[in-house]
Design a protein that fits this description.
By secondary structure, the protein is α+β, with helices and mostly antiparallel strands. Helix content is 23%, strand content 31%. The chain has two domains: 15-245, 3-Layer(aba) Sandwich (Rossmann fold); 252-359, Nucleic acid-binding proteins (OB fold (Dihydrolipoamide Acetyltransferase, E2P)), CATH 2.40.50. The two termini are 46 Å apart.
Length: 367
């Protein structure tokens, strides 16, 4: 695909969700009082596990579902009750949703013909999109003659030619194999880097969210957990859920007793952050990539016996059992050099206090 970043969106409109709620019954409330803003040119990913409400949010923005209460604004327009066709949005679906009996050119131009766009302008828009997406050689083929990646590019192209106020993408890469998903993800990043319109991308894949987005909204059980840049989501998770959901391998989250101004981890003591009140217990979070083999004399370490080694190629994911005088041993995982025989070894790992995260036991909130 060419790396030309020409913008297809001629309008400028930000998207606002104000206290958005969707209630199906007293027990089924997939979206709970959600408020956020996506500015012109921003790429926002809605990230969370299955059932967290992200697809319902997208469907409400698209007009496919009506909110129970709250407001949806595009630019200076309140579109909460507007029909889907009156919102000037473009949507890319997980299933591509291409017309199987139409050629690539006909799929790209179908929506424009329905809008009675002049033929000359339709040809100009389709040619521009085709050039950017590398579809020139495929224009006469039908979807059944295309690969998965090519079909996904046609689906994106059909959204781009509309020159919409907002782009919505609903897990567009989930049907692709791993290698193709990586390639198309890079394509999407280049395509949407030049857009003026807000882009909202639904995914449960944190790699997609972190690599594509300028902002990430992490959702869980209908609630917004954190809205921030990908870097801040990773380095300063707002709570224990975000810390556990973002990052692979998953962050070590250990419930530790406190003694004085220290948290006790096995035979080691980790100094607590500045707190107005010392709790009886606290949760410390340490990412596996932030643990390393300790050198002699290092003050803050974890010692344990290796019971599992998983080869990840560039690293070995090493799992240790760390003694816990108060109950079951702690399980700690670290990313270490893959060239070493770690199995059944007693290891001492160094903890960097600058890269630890502290959370409240009861609420899970960051301390």
């Amino acid at each position: 695909m060419a790396s030309d970043r020409t913008s297809f969106c001629k309008t400028m409109a930000k998207l606002e969700l104000r206290n958005l709620n969707k209630t199906y019954s007293s027990r089924v409330i997939p979206v709970k009082d959600l408020s956020l803003t996506v500015e012109n040119g921003e790429f926002l990913s809605l990230l969370g596990p299955s059932g967290c409400g992200k697809s319902t949010v997208l469907r409400m923005i698209a007009g496919l579902e009506a909110p129970t209460h709250g407001q949806i604004r595009i630019g200076d327009r309140d579109v909460t009750q507007a029909r889907p066709g009156d919102r000037n949005i473009a949507m890319v679906f997980q299933s591509y949703a291409l017309y199987p009996h139409m050629s690539v050119y006909e799929n790209l131009s179908a929506g424009l013909k329905l809008k009675k766009i002049p033929t000359a302008e339709i040809q100009q828009r389709v040619q521009e999109v085709s050039r950017i997406l590398g579809l020139d050689e495929l224009m006469h083929r039908k979807p059944g003659q295309l690969s998965g990646g090519q079909r996904q590019r046609v689906a994106v192209g059909r959204a781009l030619v509309r020159q919409s106020d907002v782009f919505l993408l609903d897990e567009p890469l989930s049907n692709l194999d791993a290698l193709l998903r990586e390639q198309v993800r890079a394509d999407l990043k280049q395509i949407f880097a030049g857009q003026q319109a807000p882009v909202i991308y639904v995914t449960h894949d944190q790699t997609e969210a972190m690599t594509l987005s300028s902002k990430v909204a992490v959702l869980n059980q209908g609630h917004l957990q954190q809205l921030d840049s990908p870097g801040r989501i990773y380095t300063h998770p707002a709570n224990q859920f975000v810390a556990s959901f973002v990052g692979s391998p998953q962050m070590n989250l250990l419930n530790l007793p406190c003694e004085g101004r220290y948290a006790c981890l096995g035979d080691s003591k980790l100094p607590l952050p500045e707190l107005s009140r010392i709790p009886p217990e606290i949760v410390v979070g340490i990412r596996p990539e932030h643990l390393r083999l300790a050198q002699a004399g290092e003050p803050f370490t974890i010692q344990g016996l290796v019971f599992l080694v998983e080869n990840l190629g560039m690293h070995s994911l090493v799992s240790l059992r760390v003694s816990n005088p108060r109950g079951e041993p702690f399980i700690v995982r670290a990313l270490l050099d893959p060239g070493q025989p770690w199995q059944h070894r007693e290891l001492q790992l160094s903890v960097s206090l600058e890269q630890t995260h502290w959370f409240d036991v009861a609420s899970g909130a960051r301390l």
